[in-house]
Amino acid sequence: MAAGGTADFFYRESQRLGYVARSAFKLIQMQKQHKLIAPGAAVLDLGCAPGAWLQVACQNLGPLEKGGIVVGVDVKKVKVPSAHCDSRVRTVCADVMTLMKRQARAMSPQERGFSVILSDMCPPVSGITTKDGAISCELGMRALSLAVGKIKLKDSNYSDTLEKYLSSTEPESDEDGVLRRGGNLVVKFLENEDISGFGKFCKVKFKKVSLLRPKATRPSSREIYMICEGLR
What we know:
The chain has a single domain (21-231), classed as Rossmann fold, CATH 3.40.50. The chain has helices at 9-17, 24-34, 52-59, 101-106, 129-148, 159-166, 195-205, and strands at residues 42-46, 69-74, 89-93, 114-119, 179-190, 206-212, 223-231. Strands 3-2-1-4-5-7-6 form a seven-stranded mixed beta sheet, sandwiched between helices. The protein is an alpha/beta fold.
């Protein structure tokens, strides 16, 4: 709902089209612009509640005979939405911050990892900008660590930024990441001064890195998405 209790365009559209949240349109825009999810893809959705991104991801897997899978992980128990989802979608109740890479990999087809990792994780907003931004970066670091594996701090252009968040988000640093080579990663952040450091690191790991504030984002929100394409 928008301020004053009036439903805005994206809220009305989500109701009309059967999406469980307006956030569906954020991923729809990313998919339209970047073609992140190919037919038959293996998709890992971190922080999947309430399930709107599960719906959009499944819609982009193509027909059932194309195969593919969407696995949603959330600290809350999430029911797979009945609309826009089929038998290729399932959810796991787990804390991403303590999820081991081997556990995440075991969720993928033939345990070969995922071709797309989506992270829409966000902390409960306290209103304290620096605190919220820092927690957002911790969540972003965890998604990045799960995707690419051990993060080595060599380049002074970004090492100070990443080191601030690495110790609390890397429970098993010696394991490889669960994103397949050539795969795509989407991470949500709350805008803060450390995002540029993450971006510099990701540009080393991925062929293309860009930032997007989707049209469906609420005007009052500071959220922004880092879209990383083509893991090297």
